[in-house]
Amino acid sequence: MKFLFILFFISNVAFATQVETNTNNIVKQYLMIEKLKNDNKQLLGQYQVLKNQLQDLEKKINELAISIVLKKSTSKKQQLKIIQNPLYQKAKKALNNLKYKEAIKLFKEHLTKKPNNIDATYYWLAKSYLYANNKKEANIILKKIIDNYPNSRFYNKAKKQLNSK
């Protein structure tokens, strides 16, 4: 009987040791999972910050590109007239702020006023349609520039844009 008791005691000690080892492993795995969750939260936060920075940079690049095209393709006198036109400026601001539907609406409204810079307005309207993923309307406007304004500073750009489709 003593032998059985010793055998029972030894097997319980071995079982308890195995349970303790398994418990320790589970605790270690749990702590590792919690650390990974924390790391994941930090990475998601960093990702969001980088995503926002990328959007800001894309917006600035778009604004610079539009500004460069406008400066290169418009004479100083025409730039002054355009700058003095508040509706045109609102439309350009909407375009620069990636509010394409608003820009389209404002450029169309500007066209009803028979502006001096009708070719520029058509060009930026076409660009607004392109940025809004409405290539069909953009192409119609670009063709209008090519057909009706062959001497325009936007003629070659419209032609190039239309041919790149």
Strand and helix layout:
Blueprint: H1 2-73, H2 76-83, H3 86-96, H4 100-111, H5 118-131, H6 135-148, H7 155-163
Brief descriptors of the model:
2 domains; coiled coil; 0% strand; mainly alpha; Serine Threonine Protein Phosphatase 5, Tetratricopeptide repeat; 165 residues; TPR_rpt; TPR-like_helical_dom_sf; 7 helices; single chain
- Quote the average pLDDT: 79
The CATH homologous superfamily of the largest domain is termed Tetratricopeptide repeat domain
Terminal CA distance reads 94 Å
Please identify the structural class as seen in this structure: mainly alpha
Biggest sheet descriptor: none
| Tally of individual helices | 7
Shape: rod-shaped
> Roughly how many Å is the radius of gyration?
34 Å
Strand content is: under 5%
Q: pLDDT below 50 for ≥5 consecutive residues: which ranges?
A: none
Q: Which fold name corresponds to the CATH topology of the largest domain? A: Serine Threonine Protein Phosphatase 5, Tetratricopeptide repeat
Following the backbone from N to C, one meets helices and strands in this order, namely HHHHHHH
Work out the count of structural domains.
Answer: 2
Q: Which architecture of the largest domain does the CATH hierarchy give at level 2?
A: Alpha Horseshoe
**Total strands:** 0
Proportion of helical residues? over 70%
Indicate the CATH class of the largest domain. Answer: Mainly Alpha
